[in-house]
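Appendix C: a fully annotated inverse folding record. The material below is reproduced so that readers can follow the format used throughout the book. The structure is listed first as C-alpha cells, followed by the designed sequence.
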C-alpha cells in the first residue's frame, strides 16, 4: 500500500491524471466486455434512429417524387380568375421550373360533327413531372412520350376523336386534312392522348378533352368577359426551394386561389402514405425506447459490478469529485464512440433497406440529409446520459466501509428525482421523435398500465410460488420456484424489460398485418381499372353484351340522375355556392371527383356568414337559422342491392312496405343532421320527389367503385331519364378493344385508372418492405434488452451455481431449473404484454391510424408463447457457459 504522502499527492494531482486513469479503465473494461451491453445499446439506439429516419425520409421523398405525376408538378396553384405574374416571377427567382395552363369549355367542330369539350391549353414545358404519352396509331399499343403540343396542333382524347367521327387512318398517316375547330381557330390533329399524368379521375364528367398550345388561345376568341375559365400555374424543383416558396405563397394567396402540394393532389395515395409514415415513425419510437431500456439495465449491471472498486478507490483517498471524473469520463468515451459507430451502422442499415426495396423505388433516390444524423446523435447522447445517471448516482454513493462490510451499498435505492428524470426523458424522447402528442400519451398510458400489471403479477407470482413449491415433486421445478420467490424484486425489474420488449414486438406485428391486410383488401386482385360512363338507356343492353363478349362481368350498372336536396322534413335548406377556384373546370367537370366525394361533401356545405356590411336583413337572419344545403346537384342512383364496399350502420336496406326510401352516406347524414325517419325532398329538373331515410351507410371512398351519397329505392327514380355507369377490370392485352367500343358507341366515356392503381400498389409494396425491415430492427432491439436483463442477474446465478455444484447437483438439473424459471417469467411477461398490447392497439388504430379495431384474440396465444420461448432461449444461451465450468473454475471466476 502507498504511504499517506503518496495518496495525498495523487488525490491532489491535476485533472489530466484522473482522465488518464479513466482512459486505462475504459480500455481494460471494454476489452473485458464490461461495457459491451451499454455500447451496443447506444449503438442500437443511434443506428435505429439513423436508419429509420433516413429510410423514411428518402422513401417518402421518392414516393412523393413519383406521386408528383398526379399533379404533373410538385405544386400547383389554381383560380377562376387571372393570377398575374407575381407567382411565376417569385418561383423563377427561387430556381423553380414553371408551367402555365388555361382550362375552358368550348364546342369542337370537325366537318359536320360537333361536341362539347374541355380545352386544356399548356406550354411546351408541360409536364414538369410524370410522362405524357400520345399515340398516332389506334390499332396498336404504340405510344410516344411528348411534351406540350406545338402551336397550331391539338391532341384529343379517344372519346372526342370518335365522337367527331375522325378517321384513324388519316391520323396514322398524319394527314393534313385531320383538323378540329375551336372557336375561330383551326388546329391540326397530330395525336390522341394515351396517358396524361394529371388526368382527372372524372367518373361523372364528359371525358371529351383537347390539349393545345397556350399561345393559340387568343386566336380562338373563345374567352370573353364572363367566361368560365380555370387558370393553373405549375411549379417543380428542389425541396428546399419549394419549402421557401410554400412559406412565401401563404402570405400572398387569395381566398379564390387554391394551392396544392403532392399529397393533396394525389389524394388516392395520401391516406396510405400517411398511415405508412405513422407506422415507421411509431416503430422508430419503440426501437429507441427499447434501446434506452437496454442502456438503463446495462448501466445498472455495470454499477453493481463496480461497487467494490469504488469503495477501494475511496478508501485510498480519492474524493467524490475524482470518482465522478473517472466514471463520467468513461461514460463520455463510450457514448461518443458508440454514437459514431451507430451512425456508421445506421447508414449501412438504411442502404441495405434501400437495396432491398430497389425494385420498388426510382433509380435515383435523394441523398441522406443532415436531419437523420442530427436526430441520431441527440438520441444517442440522451440515452447514454439520462438513462445512465440514476445508476451512476447510486454507484457514487457507495461508502468506503464496503471494503470491510460487503453488504453496504447494495440497498442504496435510486432516488425519486432520478426516476422522475428517466420518466420525463422517456416522454421527451417519444415526443421529439414522433412530434405527436397522441402517440406520446398512448405510450405513457400503456407504460403506466404495464408497470401496475407487473407489480400485481409479481405479488401473485410470489404467492403461488410458495403454494406450488410445497406440492411439486420435481427438483428442477422446486429450484426454479425457489429462485422466483427469492428474487422477487429483481424479477419485477426484469419483467418490465421482458414485457416491454414482447409488447412492442406484438404491437408492431399486429399493426403490420393490419395495415398491409387493409391495403390489400382495398385493392384486391381484379380491382376495377376502367370506368364506363354516359351509357344511354337505349344502349345499355348492347353495351352489356359487348362487355360480356369480352368476358367482362361488372358488378353492377348504376343509373345516374342529377338532383338537388332542397328540404329535410318541412325545413327548406339554404342554397349557397362556394367561391370557385377553377379546380372543377380543370378537372373536366362541374362535379367533384368520385374518389374525392367524401372530402367534397365537407367542403360543399358552407357555413353561415355575414354579408360583410355588419348589418343583416330579416331574410338573412332567417336564412342563418336554417340549415345550409349542399350547394350543388348530386349524382343520385337507385338500386335494390347494397354495394359490397358499403357497410350498413343503422336502419334496414330498402325494407318492403315502406314506400319511397333513400339510404344516406354517414358523412352527409352527420353534417346535414339527417336521421332515420327523416323525409328528404329533391328537385330533379322541374319535378320534386320525396323519400324517407331508412338507412345510414358507411362508404369506402378509397375503393375503385362507383360511390354515392344518396341511393334510392327503385320506385322513386325509375321513371326519370338516366345514363348509366359501371366499372370493370380489363387486362392490358385487351386494351385495344376499347378503341372499337368507343368507335361503335362514341357517346361513351371510358376512364382508365390503371396508372393510378399501379402507383398505389407500388407505394404499398415499398412501404410493406420498409415495415418488415423496421420490424426486424425492433426485434433485434428487444433481444438486446433481454440480454441486458439476463446479464444483470448473471453474477448472482454464478454464485448459486457454485453452491449447487459444490453440493453435488448436476449441470443438467441446474440448466433445467434456469430454463423453467425463464419460461415462467417469459410466459407471465407474454400474458401482460398481450393485454397491454391489445389496449395500445385499440388507441393507436382508433386515434393514429384511423382504422377499424377488433379484439386481437390471437395475441393471447402468441404473447405467452413468444414470451416463454424468447426469454427462455436467451436466458439458456446466456447462462450456458456456467454449466460447462467445474466448481473450481466457477469459484476462480467469482474471485
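Designed amino acids, in order:
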Amino acid at each position: 500500500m502507498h504511504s499517506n504522502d503518496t495518496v495525498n499527492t495523487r488525490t491532489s494531482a491535476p485533472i489530466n491524471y484522473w482522465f488518464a486513469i479513466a482512459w486505462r479503465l475504459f480500455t481494460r473494461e471494454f476489452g473485458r466486455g464490461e461495457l459491451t451491453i451499454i455500447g451496443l445499446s447506444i449503438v442500437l439506439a443511434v443506428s435505429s434512429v439513423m436508419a429509420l429516419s433516413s429510410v423514411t425520409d428518402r422513401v417518402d421523398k421518392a414516393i412523393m417524387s413519383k406521386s408528383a405525376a398526379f399533379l404533373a408538378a410538385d405544386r400547383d396553384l389554381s383560380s377562376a380568375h387571372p393570377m398575374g405574374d407575381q407567382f411565376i416571377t417569385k418561383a423563377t427567382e427561387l430556381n423553380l421550373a414553371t408551367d402555365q395552363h388555361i382550362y375552358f369549355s368550348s364546342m369542337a367542330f370537325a366537318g359536320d360533327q360537333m361536341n362539347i369539350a374541355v380545352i386544356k391549353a399548356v406550354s411546351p414545358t408541360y409536364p414538369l413531372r410524370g410522362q405524357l404519352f400520345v399515340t398516332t396509331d389506334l390499332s396498336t399499343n404504340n405510344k410516344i412520350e411528348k411534351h406540350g403540343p406545338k402551336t397550331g396542333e391539338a391532341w384529343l382524347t379517344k372519346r372526342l376523336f370518335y365522337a367527331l367521327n375522325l378517321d384513324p387512318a388519316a391520323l396514322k398517316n398524319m394527314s393534313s386534312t385531320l383538323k378540329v375547330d375551336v372557336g375561330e381557330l383551326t388546329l391540326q390533329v397530330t395525336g390522341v392522348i394515351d396517358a396524361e399524368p394529371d388526368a382527372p379521375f372524372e367518373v361523372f364528367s364528359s371525358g371529351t378533352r383537347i390539349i393545345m398550345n397556350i399561345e393559340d388561345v387568343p386566336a380562338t376568341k373563345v374567352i370573353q368577359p364572363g367566361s368560365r375559365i380555370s387558370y393553373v400555374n405549375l411549379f417543380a424543383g428542389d425541396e428546399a426551394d419549394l419549402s421557401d416558396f410554400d412559406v412565401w405563397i401563404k402570405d400572398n394567396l387569395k381566398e379564390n386561389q387554391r394551392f396544392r402540394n403532392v399529397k393533396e393532389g394525389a389524394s388516392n395515395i395520401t391516406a396510405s402514405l400517411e398511415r405508412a409514415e405513422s407506422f415507421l415513425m411509431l416503430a422508430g419510437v419503440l426501437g429507441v425506447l427499447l434501446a434506452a431500456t437496454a442502456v438503463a439495465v446495462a448501466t445498472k449491471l455495470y454499477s453493481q459490478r463496480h461497487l467494490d472498486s469504488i469503495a477501494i478507490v475511496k478508501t485510498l483517498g480519492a474524493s467524490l469529485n475524482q470518482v465522478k471524473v473517472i466514471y463520467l469520463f468513461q461514460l463520455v468515451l463510450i457514448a461518443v464512440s458508440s454514437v459514431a459507430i451507430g451512425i456508421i451502422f445506421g447508414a449501412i442499415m438504411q442502404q441495405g433497406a434501400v437495396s432491398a426495396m430497389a425494385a420498388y423505388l426510382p433509380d435515383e433516390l435523394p441523398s441522406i440529409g443532415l436531419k437523420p444524423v442530427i436526430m441520431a446523435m441527440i438520441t444517442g447522447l440522451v440515452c447514454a446520459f439520462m438513462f445512465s445517471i440514476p445508476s451512476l448516482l447510486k454507484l457514487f454513493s457507495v461508502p468506503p466501509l464496503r471494503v470491510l462490510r460487503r453488504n453496504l451499498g447494495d440497498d442504496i435505492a435510486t432516488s425519486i428525482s432520478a426516476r422522475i428524470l428517466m420518466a420525463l426523458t422517456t416522454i421527451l424522447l417519444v415526443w421529439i421523435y414522433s412530434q405527436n402528442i397522441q402517440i406520446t400519451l398512448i405510450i405513457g398510458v400503456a407504460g403506466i398500465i404495464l408497470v401496475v400489471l407487473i407489480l400485481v403479477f409479481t405479488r401473485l407470482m410470489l404467492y403461488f410460488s410458495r403454494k406450488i413449491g410445497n406440492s411439486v415433486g420435481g427438483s428442477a421445478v422446486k429450484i426454479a420456484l425457489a429462485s422466483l420467490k427469492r428474487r422477487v424484486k429483481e424479477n419485477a425489474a426484469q419483467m418490465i424489460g421482458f414485457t416491454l420488449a414482447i409488447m412492442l414486438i406484438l404491437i408492431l406485428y399486429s399493426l403490420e398485418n393490419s395495415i398491409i391486410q387493409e391495403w390489400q383488401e382495398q385493392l384486391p386482385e381484379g380491382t376495377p381499372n376502367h370506368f364506363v360512363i354516359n351509357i344511354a338507356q337505349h344502349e345499355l343492353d348492347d353495351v352489356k353484351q359487348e362487355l360480356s363478349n369480352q368476358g367482362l362481368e361488372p358488378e353492377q350498372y348504376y343509373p345516374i340522375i342529377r338532383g338537388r336536396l332542397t328540404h329535410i322534413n318541412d325545413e327548406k335548406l339554404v342554397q349557397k355556392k362556394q367561391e370557385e377556384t377553377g379546380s372543377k373546370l380543370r378537372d373536366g367537370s362541374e362535379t367533384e371527383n368520385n374518389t374525392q366525394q367524401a372530402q367534397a361533401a365537407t367542403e360543399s356545405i358552407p357555413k353561415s356568414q355575414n354579408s360583410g356590411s355588419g348589418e343583416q336583413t330579416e331574410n338573412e337572419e332567417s336564412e342563418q337559422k336554417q340549415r345550409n344545403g349542399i350547394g350543388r346537384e348530386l349524382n343520385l342512383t337507385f338500386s335494390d342491392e347494397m354495394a359490397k364496399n358499403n357497410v350498413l350502420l343503422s336502419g334496414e336496406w330498402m325494407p318492403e312496405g315502406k314506400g319511397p326510401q333513400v339510404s344516406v352516406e354517414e358523412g352527409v347524414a352527420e353534417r346535414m343532421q339527417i336521421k332515420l325517419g327523416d323525409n328528404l325532398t329533391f328537385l330533379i329538373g322541374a319535378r320534386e320527389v320525396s323519400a324517407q331515410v331508412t338507412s345510414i351507410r358507411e362508404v369506402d371512398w378509397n375503393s375503385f367503385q362507383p360511390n354515392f351519397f344518396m341511393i334510392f329505392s327503385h320506385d322513386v327514380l325509375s321513371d326519370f331519364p338516366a345514363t348509366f355507369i359501371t366499372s370493370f377490370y380489363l387486362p392490358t392485352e385487351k386494351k385495344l378493344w376499347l378503341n372499337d367500343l368507343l368507335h361503335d358507341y362514341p357517346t361513351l366515356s371510358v376512364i382508365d385508372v390503371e396508372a393510378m392503381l399501379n402507383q398505389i400498389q407500388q407505394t404499398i409494396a415499398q412501404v410493406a418492405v420498409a415495415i418488415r425491415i423496421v420490424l426486424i430492427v425492433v426485434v433485434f432491439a428487444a433481444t438486446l434488452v433481454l440480454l441486458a436483463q439476463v446479464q444483470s442477474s448473471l453474477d448472482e446465478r454464478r454464485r448459486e451455481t457454485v453452491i449447487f455444484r459444490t453440493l453435488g447437483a448436476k449441470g443438467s438439473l441446474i440448466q433445467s431449473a434456469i430454463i423453467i424459471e425463464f419460461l415462467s417469467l417469459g410466459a407471465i411477461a407474454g400474458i401482460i404484454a398481450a393485454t397491454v398490447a391489445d389496449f395500445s392497439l385499440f388507441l393507436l388504430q382508433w386515434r393514429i391510424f384511423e382504422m377499424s379495431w377488433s379484439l386481437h384474440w390471437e395475441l393471447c396465444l402468441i404473447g405467452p408463447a413468444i414470451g416463454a420461448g424468447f426469454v427462455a432461449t436467451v436466458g439458456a444461451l446466456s447462462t450456458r457457459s456456467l454449466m460447462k465450468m467445474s466448481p473450481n473454475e466457477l469459484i476462480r471466476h467469482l474471485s
